[in-house]
Amino acid sequence: MLPNVTLGYRIYGDCGTMDILRAALALVSGVKEEVRDNNCTKVETVQALLGHSGSRPTIAFQKVVGRFHIPVISHFATCACLSNRKQYPTFFRTIPSDYYQSRALAKLVRVFSWNWIGAIAVNNYYGRNGINAFIQSAQEYGVCIEYSESFSSSGPPENLQRIITIIKHATSRVIVAFMTHREIKLLAAELYKQNITGLQFVGSEAWITDHSLTDSEGHSILEGSLGFVASRAEIPGLGEHLRRHHPSQFPHSQFVRDFWEETFDCSLNESADTQRKPCSGSESLQKVESQFTDVSELRFTNNVYKSVYAAAHALDNLIKCEDGKGPFASGSCADPKHIQPWQVRKLSSE
To answer: Do residues 230 and 205 touch, judged by C-beta distance below 8 A?
Structure first.
């Protein structure tokens, strides 16, 4: 695949919809830094955007980058609204939309004969679309919805308090929560403070396996929660690749330095004022068991992996195209040295 071609990339770790939108616009505008390899042919505009994980920021920037025909491949943006090809013609994903999750949750509720339930969602596209699809499916199965409410972690605190009051006085004990980890943390913490217990939560994939919930206030409220997650998978060679890492390979990475010193309880800086012994340089991750080396629960990571390969396959097909058998007008092919984003998008959709 991709003979004599190296894929360039730029990673943005921005949080917040506005920062993500700025990052997307920066990529669309073109990356004009010099390339060290003189043999590298570098295009000014990126040919694909991988991400974001959230539906809300994806909706925000997809409407902009879509005008430039740049394909966007998300590993975790599940809002069914993004399947609208007229509104989001360049959006793709490696995870099923919430249309399927919502119907699956409705079937789950029916299997347990929970016919009287409450529904709560985060107040955005993701939450409203997801919970509405769930309610429609649940009602088809004869499930009655006692209440349907929404709130946002950035909204007025009184909205959350109003919902807590509703839950407190409701007769249903099963709650379907279509929200992110931020909202469920707030909800669980407030229920815990007011000693409202005996609830059975059914959760969406955005929070049901979030590890940060295990040490959050009110986590006991969520014990026994049910939901669906993406299938775990093995990425060939990743475990071995991670265990070969060494600080000498990343001399300017503060993350690697901190991780190494914490893992081996030693100091990489001999002149630093620390109680740790100096690192010998012979430390190895080969026998270390940590969150970094654990590749047994790769779920959304695998979706990122598939996103990269989706773009790579599209580029590979464009480069290996035979004139007269191409996907464009009159069987024409793309210029391998000047591949355009719209051409990558066409191959991605196929």
So the answer is: yes
| Amino acid letter, residue 328 | F
Q: How far apart are CA 219 and CA 36, in angstroms?
A: 50
Do the beta carbons of residue 146 and residue 171 sit within 8 Å?
A: yes
Question: What is the rounded CA–CA span in Å between residue 326 and residue 333?
Answer: 5
Q: Residue 338, exposed/middle/buried by CB under 10 A (0-12, 13-18, 19+)?
A: exposed
Which residue type, as a one-letter code, is found at position 6? T
The confidence band for 11, taking pLDDT boundaries of 50, 70 and 90, is confident
Q: DSSP letters of 221-255?
A: GGTT-EE--PPP---TTHHHHHHT--GGG-TT-HH
Mean pLDDT of 121-146: 96
Pick the closest to residue 206 from 101, 94, 99, 84 (CA basis): 101
Separation CA 295–CA 235 (nearest Å): 8
Identity at 74, one-letter amino acid code: S
Kindly state the tokens that stand for 271. Answer: 């002149």
Residue type, 162: R
The predicted model gives 131-145 an average pLDDT of 97
The strand ranges marked E within the chain are: 49-50, 72-74, 91-93, 116-122, 144-151, 174-178, 200-203, 226-227, 266-267, 277-278
